[in-house]
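Bumping with the actual sequence this time:
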Amino acid sequence: MLMVKLIDIISPIYQELLAKCERRKIAINLDIQDLTLKIEDDNKVRDFYNREIRRALKLCVAGDKITLAQSGNRFSVKNSSETTLDTETVQKLRDDGYEVRARFGYDTIITLKLDV
């Protein structure tokens, strides 16, 4: 099976996010440890980033920040919105296997952990 490098997943997603955030005055941060990381299930990672970026964009307003992160086999989308996720959404994400840190006054971080 052909493995895709993380940069090939992140690059188009980042370019699209950049345009959306520029218009809305939302800052973007990349916190990627290894852009050359080879990913077996690239669709899972791509779908995760696309879905969680859409969620972050809904929550964020001008002045907020969205961070796309990767560390080892952990992929995260973090946003600084003051609007937190409701309890039902947090529970559904956790039931689906995601790690969620969402507390009022702190960043919301949703993480996908892949078995590598």
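The tokens above came from a reply further down the thread. The two ends are 14 Å apart (CA to CA).
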